[in-house]
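#struct-pred

JT: dropping the chains for the assembly here, can someone run the whole complex?
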Amino acid sequence: MNIMAFFGRRDDSASVAKNRLKILLEHERGGNSSSDAKLISSLREDILAVVARHINIDPDAVHLEMDRTGDTTTLGIDIELPDTDIRKSA
Amino acid sequence: MSNATVIVVTSGKGGVGKTTSTAAIASALAKQGYKVCAVDFDVGLRNLDLIMGAERRVVFDLVNVVRGEASIKQALVRDKKLDNLYLLPASQTRDKDALTDEGVASVINELRMYFDWIVCDSPAGIERGATLAMRYADEAIIVSNPEVSSVRDCDRIIGLLDSKTVVAEDGGRMPKHLLITRYDVERAKLGDMLAVDDVVDILSVPLIGVVPESRDVLKASNVGLPVTLSDEASPAAKAYIEATQRLLGEDIPVTIPSEKKGLLGKLFRGRAA
Ligand SMILES: Nc1ncnc2c1ncn2[C@@H]1O[C@H](COP(=O)(O)OP(=O)(O)OP(=O)(O)O)[C@@H](O)[C@H]1O
Ligand SMILES: [Mg+2]
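RK: done, full complex below.
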């Protein structure tokens, strides 16, 4: 039980729901979803190409994650490196 | 061969609690330490992402993967709280034929290599989407409300599970579990709702749990947390956690958790509103 509920204040999960929906629907109505997918795909290919010039990596080891919060969108890039022999010999 | 188990959560009738149950059970399994993937098969009406609170991070979806536009690993969205829980979202396309049998087969096969449990949220109905969601399952959770039309639709679904799935085509029998949801203890007492025993009797599927009607389900969906993660003490969460233990093979009697007013609840009741 959180402290708000304890003191008998209105439990505000409904307004959390409202905000989540506003952000999501704005995004979906604008038809942004498929352009996100294209952007992520091409970014991923470029990142993979750059990293692969220096390190031997599995194409699946590059993971991009987008997080939309309304006014800002963040892009997380996660690259898993192999344990051994990572550097390519010159 | 992998040891993965593919479960379909299905019902025939819409709105009985499939998506709620998929999220709750997938998270309860993940909490036990298993690697779990929840797959949304409700193409065109994706909602599992919202219920699991992952909607802001969806980029690719099941249809992208089936069409070869993204790899499974790119499409999987990791849960915010549990790092062994993933979601494979459905797409929002209106194209009814977006999913193909071969496409779904290869997705499920690949998921089997990465996960211990794959929990598939079926769309309502008995059309292609619902039959594809169950097609490659090893076990089924049949969700019913204690209400005549829901029970009847479950009966149709049982017929499909026993004819249209790979397990059935290979001459096997799909193991099934009955999950009764939105059970209203008060109304059952008054006798204006089907009793649990009646439903079990009619469908003759072993009972895996009874989830009471609970306000906590709506609250959990508001904030985007499966009810088993948002409030473990809630009667609905308890029911899902127990159902999950039974799914894992534990032999525990089915109870119907209820809202018991604790001392605080009683004390503060007069001050509310
Ligand atoms: N135990 C419960 N107590 C109260 N409300 C519930 C319970 N289970 C589900 N609900 C509510 O019922 C509604 C339908 O639930 P849900 O979306 O999980 O059903 P569904 O079977 O997936 O629907 P669909 O067939 O449209 O996919 C939701 O508003 C949900 O919050
Ligand atoms: Mg649903």
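JT: nice. Residues 261-273 of chain B have pLDDT under 50 and may be disordered. The first strand of chain B starts at residue 5 and ends at 10.
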